[in-house]
Amino acid sequence: MTRAQQSEFLDEFDERIDRLPNTVDRAAVKRIRYVAYVLDEGVRVPGIGYRVGIDPLLGILPGAGDVLTGGISLYIVVEAARLGVSYTTLLRMIANVSLDVAAGAVPVVGDLFDVIWKANTRNLELVLEELTPDA
Length: 135
Known about the structure:
The protein is an all-alpha fold. The chain has one domain (3-131). It is 70% helix and 3% strand. The chain is built from eight helices and two strands, in the order αααββααααα. The protein has a two-stranded antiparallel ribbon with strand order 1-2. Strand 1 (43-44) and strand 2 form a beta hairpin. Helix 5 (64-83) packs antiparallel against helix 6 (87-104) and helix 5 runs parallel beside helix 8. It starts with a helix and ends with a helix.
């Protein structure tokens, strides 16, 4: 994973982070963004240009991989709670992580689901939607 590849994903959210109110901890939002990137987008698949992260790669390990990445995904939920995201949004985020872990536990099909679902990127979007004022 080169700096240029990281930059492509991370820069996508910079404009939205810049629009956050001054009361929002931007460093926490950037940490969420980085964790989502590593779990969902960190590696470009050669030839097709699609991006996957360590979530589906670790999901190959039966049971343990999905539990491990699910635990890391909960970090995003905890940071969102600390930022003051609403209870309803937190429940949606937990549902995304739960679905990711449950579906990911199914051999082969679950790993393909992990490649497509990208729960952490979805959760980053939920955080940004709630914290960014309407433009």
